[in-house]
């Protein structure tokens, strides 16, 4: 477990630093004063000053921040801000600065996807197994068929076939388009319900393999990152609609457990397998952090972007004391949620 904790902390650092560095870089490029750049939350373990910015490492691996001068806008009312304060920058510069955090998460995820695809290749949606007596066999699907669309949506990876199957919680029909001997065909499959796993299945396993050349590496890296983005959005949708429960949500403890499980499975295959799997987890978490921060939730980047877009449209900012109260309420709600997730993780895994 000690190794897994260290691996999680490394992944956490990479994901959070990439996010905060996005804010930091655009802010510095536009002359915005960054007061403090810190990783983690809670008490400060150590810090140092370079130029007009303080850099800190904090105790709890649950976040980080890039703090700008006058970010809450209250100093402006008191006339205490310098020329480089955040509210003094043009509104579209501030929007770019806030948006850069999630953007850098997606850029980091794409770089990680390039590494994974170049080393491992990709699983393609070519059918490798058709279960005897399954709905897929009844519909005429055969080993070697390559699935190209599911329900009118283009697919490129074997994992996408699995995702569509997992997300079909009501047994709805699948409209499958596939290629066989250069010809496209379309069938409709009604999946069968399996009591043991409480899931609906078509009865196929997609498991082709492609070792990518250089152009394909960049192409399939995009498909891989896109797959994680879609999976995250679908998971959020299922959470909101009640199709996922609180036990499907994990915080830092749950993520350490996930890292530990993957490490235990991969370590027997050597260092490279462990490294690739850890990069894959980092890719997943980087996409999740980028998406979560774009949600219009107060105190997160998405919530701040909402207020900045309102300012851009109406030509003047929302009064800072009102915006501050909204973000404070959002932060308190997020802290309560984090505590609940932490307690839930403890109950599940310890």
Give an account of the 3D structure:
There is one protein chain. With 350 residues, the chain is α+β, with helices and mostly antiparallel strands. It has two domains: 1-121 and 213-350, no CATH class; 124-210, Pdz3 Domain (Roll), CATH 2.30.42.10. Helices cover 53% and strands 22% of the residues. It has ten helices and ten strands. The chain has helices spanning 2-29, 74-78, 91-120, 135-138, 158-167, 214-240, 252-266, 271-294, 301-314, 320-349; strands at residues 34-50, 53-68, 122-130, 146-150, 153-154, 174-180, 183-189, 192-194, 199-201, 204-210. The strands form four sheets. The protein has a four-stranded antiparallel sheet with strand order 5-4-6-7, with no helix packed on it. A hairpin with a 4-residue loop joins strand 8 (192-194) and strand 9. Helix 1 packs across helix 7, helix 1 packs across helix 8 (271-294) and helix 7 (252-266) packs antiparallel against helix 8 (271-294). The relative contact order is 0.13. The mean pLDDT is 89.
């Amino acid at each position: 477990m000690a190794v897994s904790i260290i691996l999680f902390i490394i992944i956490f650092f990479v994901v959070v630093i990439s996010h905060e560095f996005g804010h930091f870089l655009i802010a510095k490029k536009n002359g915005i004063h960054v007061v403090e750049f810190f990783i983690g939350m809670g008490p400060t373990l150590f810090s140092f000053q370079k130029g007009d910015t303080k850099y800190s490492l904090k105790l709890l691996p649950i976040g980080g921040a890039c703090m700008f001068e006058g970010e809450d806008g209250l100093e402006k009312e008191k006339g205490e801000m310098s020329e480089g304060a955040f509210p003094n920058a043009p509104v579209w510069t501030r929007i770019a600065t806030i948006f850069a955090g999630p953007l850098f998460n997606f850029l980091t995820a794409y770089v990680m996807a390039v590494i994974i695809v170049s080393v491992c290749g990709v699983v393609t949606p070519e059918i490798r197994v058709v279960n005897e007596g399954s709905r897929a066999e009844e519909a005429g699907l055969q080993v070697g068929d390559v699935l190209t669309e599911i329900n009118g949506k283009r697919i490129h990876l074997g994992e996408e076939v699995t995702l569509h199957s997992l997300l079909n919680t009501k047994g709805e029909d699948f409209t499958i388009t596939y290629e066989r001997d250069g010809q496209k065909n379309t069938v409709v499959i009604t999946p069968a319900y399996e009591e043991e796993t409480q899931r609906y299945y078509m009865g196929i396993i997609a498991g082709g393999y492609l070792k990518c050349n250089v152009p394909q590496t960049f192409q399939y890296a995009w498909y891989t990152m896109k797959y994680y983005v879609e999976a995250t959005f679908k998971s959020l949708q299922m959470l909101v609609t009640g199709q996922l429960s609180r036990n499907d949500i994990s915080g830092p403890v749950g993520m350490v457990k996930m890292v530990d499980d993957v490490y235990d499975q991969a370590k027997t295959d050597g260092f490279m397998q462990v490294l690739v799997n850890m990069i894959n987890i980092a890719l997943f978490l980087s996409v999740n952090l980028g998406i979560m921060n774009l949600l219009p939730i107060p105190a997160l980047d998405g919530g701040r972007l909402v207020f900045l877009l309102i300012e851009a449209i109406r030509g003047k900012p929302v009064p800072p004391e009102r915006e501050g109260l909204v973000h404070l309420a959002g932060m308190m709600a997020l802290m309560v949620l984090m505590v609940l997730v932490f307690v839930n993780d403890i109950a599940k895994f310890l």
